[in-house]
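Bench log. Compound arrived from synthesis this morning; before running ITC I wanted a structural hypothesis for how adenosine-5'-triphosphate sits in the protein. Inputs:
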Amino acid sequence: RFLAGDAQAAGALEVIGIRKDFESFSALRDVHLRVNPGEMLCFLGPSGCGKTTLLRIIAGLETQTAGQILQNGKDVSWLPPDQRDYGIVFQSYALFPNLTIADNIAYGLVNGKVRKAEIKTRVEELLKLVGLPTSGAKYPSQLSGGQQQRVALARALATRPGLLLLDEPLSALDALERIRLRGEIRRLQRQVGITTIMVTHDQEEALSMADRIVVMNHGVIEQVGTPMDIYERPATPFVADFVGKVNVLQGYALGGNLFRVGDMDLQCDACDSGFEPGEAVNLYLRPEDRMVENLAHDTPNRLRVLVTKVEFLGGLCIAEVTADALHGQSMGLHFSLNQLHDLDIREGNRIDIALRANRIRAFCSRTA
Ligand code: ATP
């Protein structure tokens, strides 16, 4: 556990009431956030939501209009970047092309007046840590993009910072390398135990890497939660829509846990029962939240649907279905390839399904 002691001792970060105005435009509005020691937090959101601006304010690369940043209880809000305790990795690897890999990694240590022998040992350890033990004498141009990003990671960790900031570190890599490095960064982050914030617009990246995800939209935080929380219990229509795929059915509340969609009364056990009867709602349902096997006559939310399209994606297939009972509103549902064959799910066929009552979420359609 190479850096664990130092890194875990430092860590927690608090973002208090951060606002950022660019002239009349507010990129961040009263953002509050607490980062736990040792956790991997992802800022996730669409382009322009303010995630990079927030990371840059934490790094001191951008000045906040209002609010505070505390690191380990210490107010760092007005410290210049070089007096804050973090390492950072950017999308473009930003290595020095004329320095060897070893010298790139040692860069922050040389300036920090660490002894030569100690630097050499540390660089060797870091090269091993990022899986490049024999590349120290090479130059950046001799490495692949993924390898260069590993070097950038090693460089960011070299000074044993209390915080690691990653700004879309995988965006410039090809799909395969991205997935490989995703796992590598996660392993390394756990091994080192360093508090980490990563910016990404890629929900799969956030779901697979984060301990907690901060979903942002239009300069505000919509939800903070574990990947499972965010996916299974989205707090807002935006989160339900942005993270994962979702079907939206329009209807209205009947009272209690019942909602009318078209001619159907849908039972919705996960929904807030605080809707006024007659209130317009949007019901959100994930494509996998349907049952097709062992349906009893009285299974709730059972309906006959017409398959209008089947998209074959390998083991997982997506069937587009409509139902007269839903007044023609369509849904995309996931089926395994085996189910596709066993239940003869193909275009033009009708099948019986049931929408999972404990998975449907309702949001008032005025806020949706
Ligand atoms: P992306 O993934 O596209 O970078 P983001 O969520 O990281 O998106 P930011 O880069 O933080 O978004 O930008 C948030 C908003 O602030 C955007 O609308 C952007 O146009 C605006 N913005 C960012 N920097 C400046 C600037 N220097 N001057 C004016 N507006 C800016």
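What the model suggests: Residues 175-192 form the longest helix (18 residues). The two ends are 47 Å apart (CA to CA).
ITC booked for Thursday regardless.
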